[in-house]
Amino acid sequence: MNLHKLIFTKNDCYKAGKKIKPKGIMVHSTGANNPMLNRFVGPDDGLLGKNKYGNHWNQPMDRKICCHAFIGKLADGTVATYQVLPWNHRGWHGASGSKGSCNDTHIGFEICEDGLTSADYFGKIYREAIELCAMLCKEYGLTEKDIIDHREGHALGIASNHGDVKHWFGKHGKSMDTFRAEVKKLLEVKAEPEPQPDPEKPTTLYRVQVGAFREKGNAEAFLRKLKAAGFSDAFVVQVDNGLMRVQVGAFAVKANAEQRLKAAQAKGFDGFITTKSSKA
Ligand SMILES: [Zn+2]
Question: What is the CA(27)–ligand 1 centre distance, in A?
């Protein structure tokens, strides 16, 4: 997942400042042929590109509308996810139905539609959305069964009468059922057991590095940020050239390091895997 964060502090929904306890996730698609994230997300952060009409949603609008994230294209054409509300903020994404409002219970994200015919774009947004849902399920203790689209939300009586996302997924042989099955698969990926260290043999450790600093205070501040994000085993290693590297795990099994790196990236930390330790 290519996750970025640009919180819509100027949208009235953000200003309303209500919180929810997320009990599910609602998948939406925008219903307009414009796959560019900058249609909705702004101002330009250097990756989004400029919205020449200035009509992104990070500003006061005449409609009460706002979701938690958008999936679509950056200016360079790559697909990314932008979180635009804190996940536990009450969004304005699905209105209500006969039995209440999904806005009180569901995290909602919009996938920017294109002309609905590109298999390449669909494949990318489908994968991105699956990974986003898996991350949110882990964060809020949800399962794939807690994920619905807007259309299903209407059928359940908790959303307005919209058809997204079936009209799009169906064109590419997918459905919310195939989607949930893919999220389930990701949730079932377990870490491989770490082998017992053999004192006779030096083991290569795969370290997940997410920062490097010259100033000790900066390294420590970054470390606190990581711990606050749930990486309680993050640590700082000092290396010969005076750099302090901040790492979030050291693993004998490379796949485990890769999984940790993904988890760090999902929380917005850039990083890479290195086998170097104190000798830089
Ligand atoms: Zn919708």
Answer: 7
pLDDT of residue 279: 45
Measured in Å, residue 111 CA sits from the centre of ligand 1 at 9
Cα(94) to centroid(ligand 1), Å: 6
Domains of the chain in sequence order: 3-187 (3.40.80.10), 206-274 (3.30.70.1070)
Tokens at residue 209, please? 């590095």
Q: What is the pLDDT of residue 243?
A: 84
CA of 113 to the centre of ligand 1 (A): 12
Chunked into runs of 10 residues, the chain (280 residues) has average pLDDT values of: 96 97 98 97 96 95 96 97 97 97 98 98 98 96 97 98 97 98 92 73 85 89 91 82 86 90 90 72
